[in-house]
Amino acid sequence: MPSEAPHGTAAAMPPAAVSAGTAPARRAGLAQVLAPETARLYAMDWKAFAAWCKAADLAALPAAPATVAAFLTEAGKTVGAGALGRRAAAIGARHRQAGLPSPAADPAVRAILNAARWAATPRRPPPRRPAELLRMAAACPGDFAGLRDRALLLLTATGCFPRATLVGLDVEHVRFTATSVELGRHVPAADGDEHRVSVPRGATLASCPVQALQDWLRRSDTRFGPVFRKINRGGTIEQHRLGTDALRRILARRAPRRLRRTRKASA
Questions:
Q1: Whole-angstrom Cα distance, residue 128 to residue 254?
Q2: DSSP 192-219
């Protein structure tokens, strides 16, 4: 006589009975975990997916990753990245409720979601054109802040330096010649050369980054340490160097009001 399975186990239950009994329990358990509004939205998303699959004569449960990818690609034409991610999460949740692996974890599905998020990410405004930077530099006043900002703007207009490089310069990295200024760290490279950039003098004093830098260093009496330093509200030069975000703030402050309004409207 066959031995009896221990009471309370599913050993004697056919697989179909186990699946039928556990799926509702999983759905009920997940419903308790999800917030009511999230559960409602997931139900709507699943209903939309199931209807789309029925119209396309495709299986919704279990769904193939290619099916989910096609559904999300179609839905992405009318909904945003957030709603698209929620629909993928709803499909994955319904599969997990049924004890099935989530097709939303497939790389093809993740790629569609990542592309939607990337397309929805706000873009930074385009970099300022050199002519625009030259106009801004010409409008800088003759006080400490104006001299510093003018040198920064004209050096930026050369296109030779990232922001971090400019604000990271020390006086020890600066060497003036008759025709240029050499900027960079005195660190020998693998071939024995130094990592330095030579900036030639401009055609006019008003547009010359070399002269602007000389004027700033001389007037500020900066002989060592950071080239571009902070200036407090009282107009006193501090010993601390500018932060990496300082150039963005200077650009915003020195831009003409008309230009600021135009950029804000286009953002």
A1: 12
A2: S-EEEEEEEPPSSGGG-HHHHHHHHHHH
Can you say whether residue 87 is alpha, beta or left, with left for phi > 0 and alpha for psi between -120 and 50 degrees?
alpha
For residue 156, what are the contacts with CB-CB under 8 A and spacing of at least 6? Answer: 128, 133, 166, 247
Tell me: the pLDDT tens digits for 147-205? 999 999 999 998 888 777 888 899 998 999 999 999 875 444 444 455 678 899 988 88
Q: Give the CATH number, domain containing residue 111.
A: 1.10.150.130
Note the pLDDT tens digit of each residue in 52-76: 999 999 999 999 999 999 999 998 8
Highest mean pLDDT pick, 15-19, 208-212, 261-265: 208-212
175 located within any domain: yes
What gap in Å lies between CA 171 and CA 30, rounded to an integer? Answer: 63
Name the burial class of residue 59, with classes exposed (0-12), middle (13-18) and buried (19+) by CB atoms within 10 angstroms of its CB.
Answer: exposed
Domain presence at residue 210: yes
Of all residues in the chain, what percent carry a pLDDT higher than 70? Answer: 76
- Residues forming a β-bridge with 229: 241
- Cα separation, 127 vs 87, in Å, equals 37
